[in-house]
């Protein structure tokens, strides 16, 4: 995997958003077992991470597992205001980043 400094932040954010949207997809919405919109969002960030990581699936899996571990630690304290704020910050960041990605994709079409 060859990621330069400029790509590193986007890669790390993509891994975080992939994990976040994956968790949200698993939680579902409206009584469904899976939220298709969240699955689509997570898949979009998997694609970005895969391109940036030169298709290094082992590294992506390692980084994804580390991110999931971070979410597990957050979930251990669901009533902690700091943990709630962290999840809200991640949600805002990933939603914003997805908007940017969608805008870029629309512009490329």
Total E-strand runs: 0
Please identify the oligomeric state. single chain
Shape type: globular
Give the helix tally. 4
Strand content: under 5%
Helical residue percent band? over 70%
Radius of gyration, in Å, reads 14 Å
Biggest β-sheet: count, sense, barrel?
none
Write the layout of secondary structure elements.
Blueprint: H1 5-27, H2 36-52, H3 57-75, H4 81-108
Helix pairs in contact: 1-2, 1-3, 1-4
Task: Describe the overall structure.
It is a single chain. The chain is mostly helical. The protein contains four helices and no strands. It has helices at residues 5-27, 36-52, 57-75, 81-108. The longest helix has 28 residues, at 81-108. It is globular and about 40 Å long. It starts with a helix and ends with a helix. The model has no long low-confidence stretch (mean pLDDT 88).
Short description:
Helix content is 80%, strand content 0%.
List keywords for this structure.
109 residues, mainly alpha, single chain
């Amino acid at each position: 995997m060859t990621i330069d400094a400029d790509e590193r932040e986007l890669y790390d954010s993509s891994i975080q958003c992939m994990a976040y949207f994956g968790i949200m997809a698993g939680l579902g919405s409206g009584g469904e077992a899976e939220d298709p919109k969240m699955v689509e969002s997570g898949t979009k960030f998997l694609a970005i991470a895969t391109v940036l990581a030169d298709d290094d699936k082992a590294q992506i899996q390692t980084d994804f597992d580390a991110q999931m571990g971070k979410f597990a630690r957050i979930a251990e304290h669901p009533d902690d205001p700091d943990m709630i704020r962290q999840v809200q910050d991640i949600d805002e960041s990933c939603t914003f980043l997805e908007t940017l990605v969608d805008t870029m994709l629309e512009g490329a079409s």
